[in-house]
Request: fold
Amino acid sequence: MFRHLLFSLAALLFLSSSASAADKLVVASDTVWPPMELLDDQKNVIGYSTDYLKAVAKETGLNLEFRSIAWDGIFAGLAANQYDIIASSVTITPERQKVYDFTIPYYNVRQAIVVPKNVNCPDLASLKGKTVGGQIGTTGLMVVQKANVGAIIREYEDVGLAMQDLATGRVDSVVCDDPVALYYANQKADFADKLRVAFKTGDTEEYGFVVHKGRKDLVEKLNQGIKAVQAKGLDKPIAKKWLGE
Reply:
């Protein structure tokens, strides 16, 4: 009888842990996009998007596990079902919506041009003949390309590498989302005294969390959480913490 009891308890514990593992949603973030997504000293994923999604999860009872995934493979990994959600400052675009499902927006940005402190650069037209660095596959580079002003595009795996080249004169400017631009120009050690945000583009972009096409149940759950976070003002302390807003 005692052996049967031990076996039953062990079976229950196994089933419980299996259910818990099955319920866990894996979240992918490209952690080279501060202050939106980055790693702390212990290699934990942190940042604005991370805290926002954690708040969403708390409101909806979701169980999350965060992983650091490079941007150049992040969408392929979602398509291959290696994770459930991308939380990586992904701009909602019609092209991306054809392939993936998005939540409602959780943050709005504009593109910003970062230059050395002593350089005058008032608009996109002033980039003619200049080298513009940016992270590969980002909407910032797309904006410069679509402007067709004669800029020379240089793509980087990591926006931080582009900023390093800007600080040392290897490129003339860097384009990225405005919170990232402000972070490097105003806060990042070794950059804040060398760089400035020259201007921001007029068009606003919206960030959304991304899931595999057809995961309507998950999109609805996430949307429910985003609405709750916004209605309760839970996003305000997150913005203050990471963005100073």
